[in-house]
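can u do me a favor
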């Protein structure tokens, strides 16, 4: 015989599955439900525990129970594990088209990986910026290699993550993009080969092309991250000069290397005498659990050049990033100075001021939960609107989704058609130098859920359906 609380849990679960409650909705209070089902409050509480165990609700202290659809049954994408050959980089045409679309505020913003302002501490950053702008000489001088107050804050954070750092080991940069470019300039020369996980973040191609580098793509697995076996093979076969990896919540797959794999990666590259450029821009945004450690935490020889940024958490427009270049500090300092002397001073002071107020951790805790809900809702919608055979990533951090449509669907075609209808998306061809992701799209999940977003996803799904039906 089924116990009463299990029966109540079954009924609430059915309501959730039928869409009466959606991910992120708060369930009615226990008193209301006890009246509605004609049972005691204790029975409702037991049924909520059952639902929590089944993954359908989350309890939030002093706030109630919130619906959380268990990961939708839509499969996760697979990535071909075939090795590539070193390829010269030419990314200009497609990237410019994409960047233009990303900046057009009239479009539904599913393209660029930029958080909606609702996901950033706008008011506090405004206050910090006006505070910094009012400082006297301190705000107007060059700040090479970065304001000490900011470097001190960042050094403390890195040390807390297991990568002991002092302010003098840091170079403040204009975003992570510049940190990566400086790191590359410090350890490579034109014509060198750089190993890159694939699919990779499209902006990286700009740095690689600018520096005349060639790329060898190492396949990444949506659940495990970069293939260490594939990387080992590449190291044996080619004179690789550097390797760039996003070990925490890669863009676009949203996957993370386990600590054991991070350690193996660091050791493997150190043995091969190949510097590792770690891009940890999404590290502060796990969807659940603790902030993961960077690969830098396993670096004993200064072989890891760590790149960070506040673009995905505080403000992309402040353009504040940093580089902890390990044993390449002198080269990195020189490169930064050659490139543009120093990063703008007022944004540095503003970010330092915000960090000193101790609000960053609190902010991260709330925003992570909101990202988790936004992404789950979007995954469910993709499962609902896209053709059968579509797979969608299950990120453990960051805020983008990777959608693999059935063969025959063309992401570039959908990108162009969607643009014509006022929707921006990122198409798969941007994420590799080969055409292997032509049937893929990347969606930006950092948007508050509303009718406009749902309609846009429905339209994208219809475009894909039409293409799939013509196969
Ligand atoms: C993985 C990754 N690295 C670096 C960047 C560039 O960061 P920033 O805006 O701080 O230059 C991005 C931006 O999308 C990114 O996704």
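np, heres the sequence
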């Amino acid at each position: 015989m089924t116990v009463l609380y299990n029966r109540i849990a079954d009924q609430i679960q059915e309501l959730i599955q039928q869409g009466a409650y959606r991910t992120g909705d708060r369930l009615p209070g226990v008193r209301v439900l006890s009246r509605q089902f004609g049972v005691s409050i204790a029975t409702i509480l037991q049924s909520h525990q059952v639902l929590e165990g089944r993954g359908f609700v989350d309890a939030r202290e002093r706030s109630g129970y919130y619906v959380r659809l268990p990961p939708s049954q839509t499969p996760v994408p697979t990535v071909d594990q075939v090795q590539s050959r070193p390829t010269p980089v030419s990314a200009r045409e497609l990237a410019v088209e994409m960047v233009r679309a990303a900046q057009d505020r009239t479009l539904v913003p599913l393209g660029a990986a930029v958080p909606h302002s609702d996901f950033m501490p706008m008011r506090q950053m405004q206050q910090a910026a006006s505070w910094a702008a009012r400082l006297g000489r301190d705000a107007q001088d060059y700040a090479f290699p970065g304001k000490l107050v900011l470097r001190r804050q960042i050094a403390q954070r890195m040390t807390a993550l297991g990568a002991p750092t002092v302010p003098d080991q840091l170079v403040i940069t204009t975003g992570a993009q510049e940190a990566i470019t400086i790191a590359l300039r410090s350890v490579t020369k034109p014509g060198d080969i750089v190993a890159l996980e694939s699919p990779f973040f499209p902006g990286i191609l700009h740095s690689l092309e600018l520096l005349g580098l060639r790329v060898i793509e190492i396949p990444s697995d949506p659940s495990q991250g970069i293939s260490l076996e594939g990387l080992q093979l590449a190291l044996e076969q080619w004179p690789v000069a550097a390797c760039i990896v996003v070990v925490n919540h890669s863009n676009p797959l949203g996957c993370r290397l386990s600590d054991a794999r991070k350690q193996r990666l660091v050791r493997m590259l150190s043995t091969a005498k190949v510097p590792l450029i770690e891009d940890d821009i999404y590290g502060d945004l796990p969807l659940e659990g603790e902030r993961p450690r960077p690969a830098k935490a396993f670096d004993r020889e200064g072989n890891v050049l760590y790149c960070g940024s506040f673009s995905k958490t505080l403000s992309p427009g402040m353009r504040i990033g940093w580089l902890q270049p390990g044993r390449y500090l002198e080269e990195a300092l020189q490169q930064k100075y050659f490139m543009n002397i120093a990063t703008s001073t007022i944004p540095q002071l503003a970010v330092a001021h915000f960090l000193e107020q101790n609000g960053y951790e609190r902010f991260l805790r709330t925003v992570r939960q909101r990202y988790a809900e936004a992404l789950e809702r979007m995954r469910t919608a993709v499962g609902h609107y896209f053709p059968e055979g579509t797979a969608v990533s299950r990120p453990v951090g960051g805020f983008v989704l990777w959608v693999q449509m059935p063969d025959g669907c063309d992401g570039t075609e959908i990108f162009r058609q969607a643009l014509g209808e006022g929707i921006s998306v990122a198409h798969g061809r941007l994420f590799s130098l080969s055409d292997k992701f032509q049937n893929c799209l990347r969606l930006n999940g950092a948007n508050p859920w509303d009718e406009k977003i749902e309609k846009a996803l429905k339209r994208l799904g219809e475009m894909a359906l039409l293409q799939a039906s013509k196969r």
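The chain has a mean pLDDT of 92. hope that helps!!
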